[in-house]
Amino acid sequence: MKIIQYASLVLLSILVLASCQQKKEKKEVESKALEPISNEILESAVIYEANIRQYSPEGTFEAFTKDIPQLKELGVKVIWLMPIYPISMKNRKATADLSIEDIEDPKEKEKYLGSYYAISDYTAVNPEFGTSEDFDKLVDTAHENGMYVILDWVANHTGWDHEWIEKHPDYYHKDKEGNVTDPINPDTGESWGWTDVAHLNYESDSLWTAMKDEMLYWVKEKNIDGFRCDVAGNVTTDFWNYVVPELKKEKPVFMLAESEDKDLFYEAFDMGYNWEGHHIINEIAQGKMSVKNWDDYMAKIDTTYQNDDYLMNFITNHDENSWNGTVEERLGEASETMLAFTYALPGMPLIYSGQEYGMNHRLKFFEKDTIPKTKGETWKTLEKLGALKNNRKAMHGAKNAASYKRLSTSNDEHILAFQREKDEDTLLFIANFSNKKQEFKLSVSGNFVNYESSNNLNLNPDEIHNFEAWEYKILLSK
């Protein structure tokens, strides 16, 4: 009997060990399953800007990590984390105009958390968000769900508490009296008003090495997949051309510049901000610009950018939401049309935290706030658009983007129509960019499918179309 019991225990131990080994091997396979980031992946990507502080009532890595699997429903392939580093206390912003030193009440001071972009330590995490291990879990969870993580990187300035100010004052710009300055607008020679940060000076060769090492830490030790670089055009392009190859020696990385400066894309950056296009979208929605302005813009960028340059398209982001107004405030009844427009265009569409829930609230920038979490029509729209972006070659938008061809209509003053095509996959975007019903003919013939209704549509150049105010259609080849 004892022999049988012993044999049973041995067999049980073997089975447990085998099960543990299988789980370990399965986990290793899963962790290795994510391909290195590449242009092929980015062609069909949606990018999500995560504001950890405001994403949840807790404002933590852990709370955001729980929701990462949901982002797959929206077609998200890249998660951009707003700065996750400790924030300087000295000169901390309380409002756009006031510093925390201007607030006398100690309890009142506590609620001002400062700007994410006033960094006191580039290689630590803000303890308000959680621990370094919590951050690791966020990255691992994103990778397990087929998503890449890029960090917001602020190379133009540090917070006033950063140790470099004492240890390496040569890293900073100084005034005539030798005092470190806040950032200066290169166009005007005057302060931007960012008084909570100190301006770094890239005439210091030592700074280049120091900044490279700080960036490499996150790539080597934390396995992140690239950077969104704040005010990238205010940092010398030579630095970016130096540091990006150093990062790529470790692994492929995706580089997003908060800039439209053409020279940044020659060597260093993959994608930039479509700021000008965004502002035209706002102006069209407000009746201050027209379809012609958009056509002129597309003609301009076609001749000024290289063929493999591409831009991030958006109707909101952290700056727009907090400082210039919500989507509804700026775009009104044109909101859904312009959202679909940013997906249909060449480039990569952005979702900002809360946008997926139809957020009509300006998030506080220097204090704790939170986004809504009720899924509604905007979520459903983003699901459909995300599926299109992920699965249709005619939506490809990176270095090997689908073509963009403007289609003529009998009402080009108010109707914008264009065709995108790649590898025999075709997409038509047709929209009434006005607040009145419009009638028009479209110079296209053929059979298409309406992406929203899945209804078949046979287009005829002689057919008269009637679109309601801000009505749009996305039509797909069969």
What report would you give on this structure?
- Pfam families: Alpha-amylase.
- Residues 1-18 form the signal peptide.
- It comes from Psychroflexus gondwanensis ACAM 44.
- Helix content is 34%, strand content 18%.
- It is globular, with a radius of gyration of 25 Å.
- Strands 1-2-3-6-7-8-9-10 form an 8-stranded parallel beta barrel. A 6-stranded antiparallel sheet has the order 11-12-13-18-15-16, covered by helices on one side.
- The relative contact order is 0.10.
- By secondary structure, it is an alpha/beta fold.
- It has helices at 2-32, 39-42, 52-55, 61-71, 106-110, 132-144, 164-167, 205-222, 237-248, 275-285, 291-304, 318-324, 327-331, 335-344, 377-391; strands spanning 46-50, 76-81, 148-153, 157-159, 197-199, 226-229, 254-257, 271-273, 310-313, 348-352, 403-406, 415-422, 425-432, 438-440, 446-450, 456-459, 465-467, 472-477.
- α4 (61-71) packs parallel to α6 (132-144), α8 (205-222) packs parallel to α9 (237-248) and α14 (335-344) runs parallel beside α15.
- The chain folds into 2 domains: 37-403, Glycosidases (TIM Barrel); 415-477, Immunoglobulin-like, CATH 2.60.40.
Write the layout of secondary structure elements.
Blueprint: H1 2-32, H2 39-42, E1 46-50, H3 52-55, H4 61-71, E2 76-81, H5 106-110, H6 132-144, E3 148-153, E4 157-159, H7 164-167, E5 197-199, H8 205-222, E6 226-229, H9 237-248, E7 254-257, E8 271-273, H10 275-285, H11 291-304, E9 310-313, H12 318-324, H13 327-331, H14 335-344, E10 348-352, H15 377-391, E11 403-406, E12 415-422, E13 425-432, E14 438-440, E15 446-450, E16 456-459, E17 465-467, E18 472-477
Parallel strand pairs: 1-2, 1-10, 2-3, 3-6, 6-7, 7-8, 8-9, 9-10
Antiparallel strand pairs: 4-5, 11-12, 12-13, 13-18, 14-17, 15-16, 15-18
Helix pairs in contact: 4-6, 8-9, 10-11, 14-15
